[in-house]
C-alpha cells in the first residue's frame, strides 16, 4: 500500500469505467467516416483527410446550439446505411470504448435513420448488434473485456416512437437493453410519445428520455411525471428547480426533490453540455452541485467524435475543475452501474468483481 496513484489521463484510463449515454453515430473514427463515404459513394463530407475532418466536427459542434450541434450527424448517419457500415462502426465503437478502460457501455442509436439503402428496422438492429459482439470479442482478445448493451432511440420530431419501442422489446433478449427518444427538445415534448412509453411499461421494459438539455424544467417534469422514465438523458436543467434565495443553502423544488428521492439517474455529459449551450462553461456546470446534493450523477461522453473526447478525458476535466479524487470517480462509476439496463445480479457482479477491485488498486 503506497498511497493513491496520481490522477493523470494515463492513470484514469486504467480505471474501470461505465458509460450510459454514448451515441453510436456520434463516435465514429474520422478515418472510418472517410472510408465508408468512399465505399457508399457519399461525396458531401466537408474534408478529405482524417485530421481535418476531426477538426471540422469539433468546430461545427462548438456552436452553443443543440440544433446546430445535431446537424453534424448528417454526415455520420449518411455513411451508416449498409450492413458493412453498421457492423464496422459498432465493432470499432466497442473496441475504442474498451481501449479507454470502459468495462460496461450502453450505446444508443436511431434505427429509423438507417433505412436509405432499403434495410428493414430489424436488419439494421441485427447488423449493429453483430458489430458489437465482434467488437466485444476483439476487445477480450486484446485483454480489455467490455460488455456492450444497445439502446434504441426514436426521433422525437418523427412519428415512429411506438414502432421503435416495439422493436426494442422484440430484441431485448438479443442485446438491446432499453429505449430512448432524442432530437431537438423545443416544440417536441416527451408527452407526444406517451403511447411508446406506455408500451414499454406494459412490457416491463426500461427507457431513458433526453430531457432538460436544451429545454428547461417542463421537459424534465413531463419525462418523470407523465412518461415515467427510468433515467434522464442529460437533465442538467434540473437546477432550474433548485434555489438559494435566502442564502441559507440550496432549496429543492417539487421536481428536483422527486428526481433525487426516486434516485432517477442523471446522464450528465460535461463537454457536450457546454457545446450545445446547456451550460455556459465547464466551471459553471452543475455536476458538482448535483453531486454534493447527492443526486445520482453519472459521467458520460454523449458524442466522442463531436466533442473530441472519451470517458477518461471527461473524468479528468471533472477532476481538474472540481478537485475530485479516486473515491469520487469510483462513486460516479458505481452510480452508473447501479443504473444500468441489465439485471441486478449482473450489475452487482461488475461492481463487486471489476469496479471496486480496480479502484482499490488506484486508491492504494
Automatic annotation (TrEMBL):
Gene3D superfamilies: Metal-dependent hydrolases
GO MF annotation terms: adenosine deaminase activity; zinc ion binding
Gene it is expressed from: add
Residues annotated as the enzyme's active site: 213 (proton donor)
Catalytic activity: 2'-deoxyadenosine + H2O + H(+) = 2'-deoxyinosine + NH4(+); adenosine + H2O + H(+) = inosine + NH4(+)
Similarity annotation: Belongs to the metallo-dependent hydrolases superfamily. Adenosine and AMP deaminases family. Adenosine deaminase subfamily.
One GO location term (cellular component): cytosol
Biological processes, Gene Ontology terms: adenosine catabolic process; hypoxanthine salvage; inosine biosynthetic process; nucleotide metabolic process; purine ribonucleoside monophosphate biosynthetic process
Entry protein name: Adenosine deaminase
NCBIfam families: aden_deam, PRK09358.1-2
EC number in record: 3.5.4.4
Cofactor(s) required, per the database record: Zn(2+)
HAMAP family: A_deaminase
Purpose of the protein: Catalyzes the hydrolytic deamination of adenosine and 2-deoxyadenosine.
Keywords: Hydrolase, Metal-binding, Nucleotide metabolism, Zinc
Residue positions binding substrate: 23, 25, 183
Enzyme class per UniProt: hydrolase
Pfam families hit by this protein: A_deaminase
The record's free-text note on cofactor binding: Binds 1 zinc ion per subunit.
UniProt KW Metal-binding keyword: yes
PANTHER family the UniProt entry points to: ADENOSINE DEAMINASE
Chain positions of site Important for catalytic activity: 234
Binding site for Zn(2+): 21, 23, 210, 302
InterPro entries membership: A_deaminase, A_deaminase_dom, Ado/ade_deaminase, Metal_Hydrolase
Domain of life: Bacteria
Amino acid at each position: 500500500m503506497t498511497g493513491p496513484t496520481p490522477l493523470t489521463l494515463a492513470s484514469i484510463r486504467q480505471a474501470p469505467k461505465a458509460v450510459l449515454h454514448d451515441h453510436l453515430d456520434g463516435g465514429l473514427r474520422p478515418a472510418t467516416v472517410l472510408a465508408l463515404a468512399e465505399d457508399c459513394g457519399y461525396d458531401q463530407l466537408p474534408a478529405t483527410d482524417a485530421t481535418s475532418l476531426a477538426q471540422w466536427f469539433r468546430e461545427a459542434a462548438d456552436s452553443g446550439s443543440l440544433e446546430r450541434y445535431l446537424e453534424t450527424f448528417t454526415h455520420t448517419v449518411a455513411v451508416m446505411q449498409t450492413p458493412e457500415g453498421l457492423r464496422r462502426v459498432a465493432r470499432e465503437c466497442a473496441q475504442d470504448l474498451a481501449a479507454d478502460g470502459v468495462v460496461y457501455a450502453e450505446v444508443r442509436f436511431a434505427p429509423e435513420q438507417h433505412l436509405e439503402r432499403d434495410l428493414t428496422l430489424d436488419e439494421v438492429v441485427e447488423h449493429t448488434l453483430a458489430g458489437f459482439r465482434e467488437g466485444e470479442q476483439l476487445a477480450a482478445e486484446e485483454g480489455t473485456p467490455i460488455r456492450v448493451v444497445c439502446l434504441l432511440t426514436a426521433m422525437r420530431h418523427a412519428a415512429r416512437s411506438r414502432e421503435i419501442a416495439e422493436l426494442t422489446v422484440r430484441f431485448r433478449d438479443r442485446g438491446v437493453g432499453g429505449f430512448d427518444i432524442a432530437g431537438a427538445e423545443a416544440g417536441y415534448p416527451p408527452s407526444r410519445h406517451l403511447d411508446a412509453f406506455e408500451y414499454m411499461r406494459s412490457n416491463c421494459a426500461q427507457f431513458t428520455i433526453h430531457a432538460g438539455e436544451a429545454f428547461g424544467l417542463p421537459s424534465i417534469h413531463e419525462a418523470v411525471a407523465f412518461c415515467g422514465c427510468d433515467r434522464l438523458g442529460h437533465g442538467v436543467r434540473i437546477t432550474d428547480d433548485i434555489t438559494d434565495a435566502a442564502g441559507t443553502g440550496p432549496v429543492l423544488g417539487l421536481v428536483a426533490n422527486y428526481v433525487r428521492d426516486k434516485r432517477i439517474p442523471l446522464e450528465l455529459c460535461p463537454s457536450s453540455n457546454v457545446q450545445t449551450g446547456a451550460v455556459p462553461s465547464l466551471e459553471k456546470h452543475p455536476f458538482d452541485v448535483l453531486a454534493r446534493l447527492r443526486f445520482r450523477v453519472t459521467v458520460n461522453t454523449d458524442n466522442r467524435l463531436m466533442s473530441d473526447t472519451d470517458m477518461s478525458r471527461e473524468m479528468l476535466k471533472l477532476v481538474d475543475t472540481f478537485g475530485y479524487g479516486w473515491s469520487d470517480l469510483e462513486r460516479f462509476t458505481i452510480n452508473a452501474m447501479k443504473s444500468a439496463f441489465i439485471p441486478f445480479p449482473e450489475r452487482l457482479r461488475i461492481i463487486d468483481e471489476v469496479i471496486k477491485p480496480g479502484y482499490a488498486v488506484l486508491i492504494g
